[in-house]
Amino acid sequence: MTQIVVDRSMLDKMQQATDGAEFVDESGTVVGLYVPSLPRSHTPNWMPPPLSDEELQRILSGPRHTTEEVLEHLRSL
User: Fold this and answer.
1) Are 31 and 24 in contact (CB under 8 A)?
2) 29 — phi, psi (to 5°)?
3) How far apart are CA 28 and CA 26, in angstroms?
4) What is the rounded CA–CA span in Å between residue 63 and residue 12?
5) What's the domain range around 31?
6) Would residue 3 count as lying in a domain?
7) Is the pTM of this model over 0.70?
């Protein structure tokens, strides 16, 4: 991933955007998104909570289906 060094002024603006921000050019066209790296206690409301190790293992150990099996099931509904 490319790293871009921001100056102090931009860093101050980014730190105030606790729920993220859009980067736009002079004409207002969105050129990127900023999602802050925050501790879990400050997770934005729109972001789902992270999975626990136990929940992840439960999901991974469950039944698996191919794309074709899923599509066949959806067609049967």
Assistant:
1) yes
2) -75, 130
3) 6
4) 47
5) 8-76
6) no
7) no
What residues contact residue 21 under an 8 Å CB cut-off, 6+ apart? 13, 14, 33, 34
Give, as one character, the DSSP assignment of residue 45. T
Tens digit of pLDDT at every position of the chain (77 positions) = 789 999 999 999 998 988 889 999 999 999 999 988 766 666 677 878 788 999 999 999 989 999 999 999 999 99
Work out how many domains the chain is built from and give that number.
Answer: 1
Q: Give domain status of residue 26, yes or no.
A: yes
Q: 35: which residues sit within 8 A by CB, 6+ positions away?
A: 20
DSSP state of 41: G
pLDDT at 39: 67
d(Cα 41, Cα 74) in Å, to the nearest integer?
39
